[in-house]
Amino acid sequence: MIRVVLTDIEGTTSSISFVHEVLFPYATEHMAEFVRDNAADNPAVREQLDAVARQSGQPPEDVDKLVDVLLSWIREDRKETSLKALQGMLWEQGYQKGAFKGHVYPDAAEYLTHWHDRGLRLYVYSSGSVKAQKLIFGFSEFGDLTPYFSGYFDTRMGAKKESASYQNILDELGVEPATVLFLSDVEAELEAAEAVGIRTAWLVREGELPKTNRPVMRDFAEVDELLKAR
Predict the structure, then answer these.
(1) Going from the N-terminus, what domains does the chain have, and what CATH number goes with each?
(2) Average pLDDT for 207-227
(3) How far, in Å, are 14, 110, 150 from residue 142 at the CA level?
(4) What does R_g of the chain's alpha carbons equal in angstroms?
(5) Which residues face 181 on adjacent strands?
(6) What's the pTM value of the predicted model, to 2 decimals?
Protein backbone atom coordinates (compact mmCIF):
# COMPACT_ATOMS: atom_id res chain seq x y z
CA MET A 1 0.00 0.00 0.00
CA ILE A 2 1.33 3.43 -0.96
CA ARG A 3 1.86 5.62 2.10
CA VAL A 4 4.38 8.12 0.73
CA VAL A 5 4.28 10.19 -2.46
CA LEU A 6 7.63 11.60 -3.57
CA THR A 7 7.29 14.12 -6.39
CA ASP A 8 9.54 15.90 -8.80
CA ILE A 9 8.71 19.55 -9.59
CA GLU A 10 9.72 20.54 -13.14
CA GLY A 11 7.32 18.99 -15.64
CA THR A 12 5.46 17.17 -12.85
CA THR A 13 3.86 19.60 -10.42
CA SER A 14 4.96 22.70 -12.31
CA SER A 15 5.63 23.69 -15.90
CA ILE A 16 9.15 23.47 -17.28
CA SER A 17 8.57 26.83 -18.97
CA PHE A 18 8.12 28.58 -15.60
CA VAL A 19 11.60 27.55 -14.54
CA HIS A 20 13.27 28.30 -17.86
CA GLU A 21 11.30 31.37 -18.90
CA VAL A 22 10.77 33.06 -15.52
CA LEU A 23 13.13 31.82 -12.80
CA PHE A 24 16.33 31.32 -14.80
CA PRO A 25 16.10 34.70 -16.60
CA TYR A 26 15.45 36.43 -13.27
CA ALA A 27 18.53 34.76 -11.79
CA THR A 28 20.62 35.70 -14.83
CA GLU A 29 19.51 39.32 -14.66
CA HIS A 30 20.02 39.80 -10.93
CA MET A 31 22.81 37.37 -9.94
CA ALA A 32 25.73 39.77 -10.34
CA GLU A 33 24.13 42.50 -8.26
CA PHE A 34 22.96 40.01 -5.62
CA VAL A 35 26.41 38.46 -5.22
CA ARG A 36 28.25 41.79 -5.08
CA ASP A 37 25.79 43.18 -2.54
CA ASN A 38 26.04 40.14 -0.26
CA ALA A 39 29.49 38.60 -0.72
CA ALA A 40 31.12 40.50 2.12
CA ASP A 41 28.41 40.68 4.76
CA ASN A 42 26.13 37.68 4.25
CA PRO A 43 27.67 34.46 5.69
CA ALA A 44 25.22 32.19 3.84
CA VAL A 45 26.12 33.77 0.50
CA ARG A 46 29.84 33.72 1.33
CA GLU A 47 29.66 30.03 2.17
CA GLN A 48 28.19 29.22 -1.25
CA LEU A 49 30.65 31.47 -3.07
CA ASP A 50 33.52 29.64 -1.38
CA ALA A 51 32.01 26.40 -2.67
CA VAL A 52 31.80 27.88 -6.18
CA ALA A 53 35.48 28.86 -5.92
CA ARG A 54 36.49 25.34 -4.87
CA GLN A 55 34.46 23.75 -7.65
CA SER A 56 35.63 26.11 -10.39
CA GLY A 57 39.21 26.73 -9.31
CA GLN A 58 38.67 30.50 -9.23
CA PRO A 59 40.06 32.69 -6.41
CA PRO A 60 37.41 33.06 -3.68
CA GLU A 61 38.17 36.78 -3.34
CA ASP A 62 37.53 37.50 -7.05
CA VAL A 63 33.78 38.13 -7.00
CA ASP A 64 33.60 39.08 -10.68
CA LYS A 65 35.09 35.76 -11.77
CA LEU A 66 32.76 33.87 -9.45
CA VAL A 67 29.80 35.72 -10.97
CA ASP A 68 31.02 34.70 -14.45
CA VAL A 69 31.15 31.07 -13.30
CA LEU A 70 27.64 31.24 -11.88
CA LEU A 71 26.23 32.79 -15.04
CA SER A 72 27.90 30.12 -17.18
CA TRP A 73 26.45 27.41 -14.93
CA ILE A 74 22.99 28.92 -15.34
CA ARG A 75 23.38 28.86 -19.15
CA GLU A 76 24.51 25.23 -18.98
CA ASP A 77 21.71 24.32 -16.53
CA ARG A 78 24.32 22.81 -14.22
CA LYS A 79 23.03 21.04 -11.11
CA GLU A 80 25.68 22.46 -8.81
CA THR A 81 24.44 22.61 -5.22
CA SER A 82 26.10 25.98 -4.59
CA LEU A 83 24.43 27.52 -7.65
CA LYS A 84 21.05 26.13 -6.63
CA ALA A 85 21.47 27.54 -3.13
CA LEU A 86 22.30 31.02 -4.43
CA GLN A 87 19.44 30.90 -6.91
CA GLY A 88 17.10 29.99 -4.07
CA MET A 89 18.21 33.02 -2.06
CA LEU A 90 17.81 35.27 -5.09
CA TRP A 91 14.40 33.89 -6.02
CA GLU A 92 13.23 34.43 -2.46
CA GLN A 93 13.71 38.13 -3.01
CA GLY A 94 11.76 37.93 -6.26
CA TYR A 95 8.85 36.09 -4.68
CA GLN A 96 8.74 38.47 -1.73
CA LYS A 97 8.77 41.49 -4.04
CA GLY A 98 5.89 40.01 -6.05
CA ALA A 99 7.97 39.75 -9.23
CA PHE A 100 6.33 36.36 -9.90
CA LYS A 101 4.34 33.57 -8.28
CA GLY A 102 5.23 29.89 -8.28
CA HIS A 103 3.55 27.96 -11.07
CA VAL A 104 1.74 24.81 -9.97
CA TYR A 105 -0.64 22.88 -12.20
CA PRO A 106 -4.24 23.16 -10.94
CA ASP A 107 -4.59 19.37 -10.76
CA ALA A 108 -1.37 19.13 -8.73
CA ALA A 109 -2.56 21.73 -6.24
CA GLU A 110 -5.93 19.98 -5.92
CA TYR A 111 -4.64 16.45 -5.39
CA LEU A 112 -1.73 17.37 -3.16
CA THR A 113 -4.37 18.77 -0.84
CA HIS A 114 -6.54 15.66 -1.14
CA TRP A 115 -3.64 13.27 -0.57
CA HIS A 116 -2.49 15.14 2.50
CA ASP A 117 -6.03 15.09 3.91
CA ARG A 118 -6.20 11.33 3.26
CA GLY A 119 -3.10 10.80 5.39
CA LEU A 120 -0.46 10.31 2.72
CA ARG A 121 2.98 11.70 3.50
CA LEU A 122 4.13 14.03 0.72
CA TYR A 123 7.75 14.81 -0.11
CA VAL A 124 9.57 16.68 -2.88
CA TYR A 125 12.76 15.59 -4.63
CA SER A 126 14.13 18.15 -7.06
CA SER A 127 17.49 19.28 -8.39
CA GLY A 128 16.53 22.76 -7.19
CA SER A 129 17.55 23.60 -3.63
CA VAL A 130 15.19 22.92 -0.74
CA LYS A 131 14.81 26.69 -0.39
CA ALA A 132 13.75 26.98 -4.04
CA GLN A 133 11.30 24.10 -3.60
CA LYS A 134 9.68 25.73 -0.58
CA LEU A 135 9.42 29.03 -2.44
CA ILE A 136 7.65 27.66 -5.49
CA PHE A 137 5.02 26.00 -3.28
CA GLY A 138 4.99 28.69 -0.60
CA PHE A 139 4.34 31.51 -3.07
CA SER A 140 2.25 29.52 -5.55
CA GLU A 141 -0.67 30.79 -7.59
CA PHE A 142 -2.86 28.73 -5.23
CA GLY A 143 -1.42 30.20 -2.04
CA ASP A 144 0.89 28.52 0.44
CA LEU A 145 0.99 24.78 -0.28
CA THR A 146 3.96 24.01 2.00
CA PRO A 147 1.80 22.77 4.93
CA TYR A 148 0.89 19.73 2.82
CA PHE A 149 4.49 18.51 2.56
CA SER A 150 6.33 16.50 5.20
CA GLY A 151 9.78 17.24 3.78
CA TYR A 152 12.03 18.15 0.86
CA PHE A 153 15.10 16.59 -0.78
CA ASP A 154 17.59 18.12 -3.18
CA THR A 155 20.95 17.18 -4.70
CA ARG A 156 22.43 16.70 -1.25
CA MET A 157 20.78 13.27 -1.49
CA GLY A 158 22.67 12.73 -4.75
CA ALA A 159 21.94 13.10 -8.46
CA LYS A 160 18.38 12.31 -9.51
CA LYS A 161 19.44 9.77 -12.13
CA GLU A 162 21.46 7.68 -9.66
CA SER A 163 19.82 4.86 -7.71
CA ALA A 164 21.94 5.57 -4.61
CA SER A 165 20.11 8.89 -4.22
CA TYR A 166 16.78 7.13 -3.83
CA GLN A 167 18.25 4.69 -1.33
CA ASN A 168 19.47 7.71 0.64
CA ILE A 169 15.93 9.06 0.64
CA LEU A 170 14.52 5.72 1.79
CA ASP A 171 17.08 5.61 4.59
CA GLU A 172 16.10 9.13 5.60
CA LEU A 173 12.38 8.30 5.58
CA GLY A 174 12.75 4.92 7.26
CA VAL A 175 10.12 3.26 5.07
CA GLU A 176 9.91 0.22 2.80
CA PRO A 177 10.42 1.08 -0.89
CA ALA A 178 7.15 -0.56 -1.96
CA THR A 179 5.23 1.98 0.15
CA VAL A 180 6.65 4.91 -1.86
CA LEU A 181 5.36 6.24 -5.18
CA PHE A 182 7.75 8.52 -7.09
CA LEU A 183 6.33 10.92 -9.69
CA SER A 184 8.55 12.35 -12.42
CA ASP A 185 8.55 13.34 -16.08
CA VAL A 186 12.07 11.96 -16.66
CA GLU A 187 12.40 8.26 -17.47
CA ALA A 188 15.99 7.96 -16.22
CA GLU A 189 14.92 9.23 -12.80
CA LEU A 190 12.11 6.68 -12.67
CA GLU A 191 14.53 3.89 -13.59
CA ALA A 192 16.88 4.96 -10.80
CA ALA A 193 14.05 4.90 -8.26
CA GLU A 194 12.78 1.54 -9.50
CA ALA A 195 16.27 0.06 -9.06
CA VAL A 196 15.84 0.32 -5.27
CA GLY A 197 12.25 -0.94 -5.29
CA ILE A 198 10.32 2.34 -5.29
CA ARG A 199 7.10 2.36 -7.31
CA THR A 200 6.83 5.00 -10.02
CA ALA A 201 4.45 6.88 -12.28
CA TRP A 202 5.61 8.72 -15.39
CA LEU A 203 3.99 12.14 -15.83
CA VAL A 204 3.70 13.00 -19.52
CA ARG A 205 1.61 16.14 -19.70
CA GLU A 206 2.08 16.87 -23.41
CA GLY A 207 2.89 14.98 -26.58
CA GLU A 208 2.56 11.30 -27.39
CA LEU A 209 2.46 8.79 -24.58
CA PRO A 210 5.55 6.54 -24.53
CA LYS A 211 5.34 2.78 -24.89
CA THR A 212 6.42 1.43 -21.53
CA ASN A 213 5.48 -1.10 -18.89
CA ARG A 214 5.39 1.47 -16.09
CA PRO A 215 2.26 3.56 -15.37
CA VAL A 216 2.05 6.69 -17.53
CA MET A 217 -0.18 9.57 -16.40
CA ARG A 218 -1.34 12.82 -17.97
CA ASP A 219 -2.11 14.53 -14.66
CA PHE A 220 -2.55 14.05 -10.94
CA ALA A 221 -6.16 12.97 -11.33
CA GLU A 222 -4.90 9.85 -13.10
CA VAL A 223 -2.25 9.36 -10.42
CA ASP A 224 -5.05 9.45 -7.87
CA GLU A 225 -6.75 6.53 -9.60
CA LEU A 226 -3.49 4.59 -9.32
CA LEU A 227 -3.24 5.40 -5.63
CA LYS A 228 -6.80 4.24 -5.01
CA ALA A 229 -6.06 0.97 -6.79
CA ARG A 230 -3.05 0.36 -4.54
Answers:
(1) 4-16+101-229 (3.40.50.1000), 19-97 (1.10.720.60)
(2) 95
(3) 12, 9, 19
(4) 18
(5) 5, 199
(6) 0.86
